[in-house]
Design a protein that fits this description.
The protein is built from 15 helices and ten strands. It has 390 residues and is mainly α. Among the domains are: 111 residues, DNA polymerase, domain 1 (Orthogonal Bundle); 153 residues, Intergrase catalytic core (hpI Integrase, Chain A, Orthogonal Bundle). The strands form four sheets. The chain has a three-stranded antiparallel sheet. It has a three-stranded antiparallel sheet with strand order 5-6-7, covered by helices on one side. α14 packs across α15. The radius of gyration is 25 Å and the shape is globular.
Length: 390
Amino acid sequence: MPTGKLREERSLNHQEENAKLLDEFLLNKEAANWSTHTLIGYRYAIADFLAFTLGLSMADVTHHEVSEWVHFLKERGLNARSRSSRMGAVRSFFIYLQIKGDVKDSPTRLVVTRDGQRRLPHWLSVTEMRKLIAAAGNLRDRALIEFMWATGCRISEVLGARMENINWNERTVRVIGKGDKERLVPLSKLVVQSLKSYLGQRNTGAVFLSEEKGFGRNIQQGGVSRTQWGAWRGYWYETDDNGKRVQRSVRLGHYRAQCTLRLRHRTVRLEDPELQTREQAQAALAKHLDGKSLANRFDPDVPIDRRSVMRILRELGVKAGIGKVTPHMLRHSFATHLLDGGANLRYIQELLGHASILTTQIYLHCADAHLRETLEKSHPHWKEEDHEKE
């Protein structure tokens, strides 16, 4: 590792090598059963860091570059929590490289990031939840909201829910949580009724489709877009072995000439003359996919995606007069209402699929009234207060 002296003669031609290291890191974590959502977040954060270093070899990166990147994230408006999250991804990346022997030591160990104060969960009251359900304009949206509120499933678990995993007799559904961990989730009678009304005669495939009853949907199979750095990014969709539709992406070429970054007192400009237009980027993506067609196709059985669920909840929240509603707010509401009703924290942990009870304990603040009532009924010292009042 450097001793603090500036090394200005480091080359900036390691883009392909760095991209390969990133792919290897993500494959390693995918083999360790990391969730797709986590892998996507890590890819974005690490790719952002690699773009900032402009092709500098990871073996030549020092804590100065890491610190400058964190400062750059702050200048871009990212809050402390987001910066800490991205720093965690880069830190994990360098630990992997250190284990492999690609770097002698992790430069991130000398960079301290202060995590923002942990935000308490936002949840909806029972009255607000009922207003949200009443605002649903079709069977799918009503079943979706009732399912999320009554099960507390993560958004990824809702998207991956399949008809084949529902046991109607026992009123349970098997979902895949973080780390590909399976768990059985109970279904209430009202949820079963809503699901059966929505599903009709359908008995296979994803539970929630992109359109009500799954008709009239044009699915875009792929495309290109520019990143905030000016690079062209290609994306496409594939179906994995579990029948789940997942998005893949690849960076196409380098960065536009207008994108300049200050790296260790130098300004560097990079550009790829072969990728100046959208048509050229599309041709590069097609070549990457061996000429696979990216044309739109008609598919009546495409699962609903994350963005659509967020849009549905946002629109229904406004319609119901509640305000902003997110998928995780329904999960928080599920846990809070259970705790208010007297449920044991361990049971809530199992229902939420938390690996640690410490994660579930954040909901304790949400039920102060219930906890106080429990203390007054159960603890001898609190009981003595009641006797004194008498």
